[in-house]
From TrEMBL:
GO terms for molecular function: histone deacetylase activity. Belongs to the histone deacetylase family. Transmembrane segments: none annotated. Pfam families: Hist_deacetyl. This is Acetoin utilization deacetylase AcuC.
Amino acid sequence: MKSIGFVFHEDYVKHDTGEQVYVVGGNETLNVGLEFENHFRVRYIKEMLEKSGLLAKMKTFVPEPATDRDLLRVHTQRHIDNMKETARKGLRVFGPEAYGCPVSEEIARLSAGGAMKAVDIAMDNEVKQAYALIRPPGHHATSDQAMGFCLYNNVAIAARYALDVYGLERVAIVDWDVHHGNGTQDIFYHDKNVLFISVHEDSYFPANTGKIEEVGEGEGEGYNVNIPLPSGTGNAGYQYAFEQLVLPILEKYEPQLLLISAGQDPNCMDPLSRMVVTREGFRYMAKVVRELAERICDGRLVILQEGGYSLPYLPIATLGVIEGLMDCEADFRDPHSVPERPVTQELWEAIFACKKIFSQYWNNI
């Protein structure tokens, strides 16, 4: 069993996104409970890792908050000021579908700091691989706007930190969250020093981004890779996408550090997706990116928590990620039974369309 770093701070639970309230008939309201992105997400994941015995085998690290200098590597001063002012005023809405409370800007800095701490672990010769259980998530935050539960873009801050502080020249980001990582794409769209690969549900959220034709511009052309998959793809379909596209492109790029935006919301029970991925599918994805990192970048791998909103299944899906990362299988029997879905004609056509676009930049696919 491999030893890995575990990054967490107890204050992540203080980020309060409030409750979902529907307006019915113009003036009637219906309270349906906590927002999808709530503190129970990290509580349940941590408890699963503790009770499975895996957390005891990790080396735990406590992060510090990101400074303005850290945030300014990818965000504008205007955005930082807006986040501070929104929190100071006690407003709930930080941006489109991005909610919080008076301490949320501080906790978002702590989340970004957790991503940076994970990079420090990966660049250290002792551990080299880390999982950061952080919130709020980050991949929807653009340089100048919070959105989709995200205030600051954790993975983008981590990538730029690795380039600037450790002097790296090539960093790769793989985003397997069910939603397109539009903020990460926005930040690195003109940058060849960061390869961004987003594997997401087609035409979902945000609805107007994540198309295969969005390949980057200028020096970044070819280094932005979108792989939109049809609804109901399942484990076999994700494996096919990784084998045909993700892994070959990473091999060709030869990153010096590999970052994963690990949203476990493609899981089979998530209320915000329809992709039917199980614990075994997440274990596979984590396993193959770990093996690839060990081959091409001295094992330097960082996995950052993004989405995942099924409180019963999110801990199980994330357990699969950690099993793949640690090269083990926990003594836990998944009580949920989900039929395996085969690779469909629709998926094959989606991958073929991607290859047609990307092969002009990556001649090994």
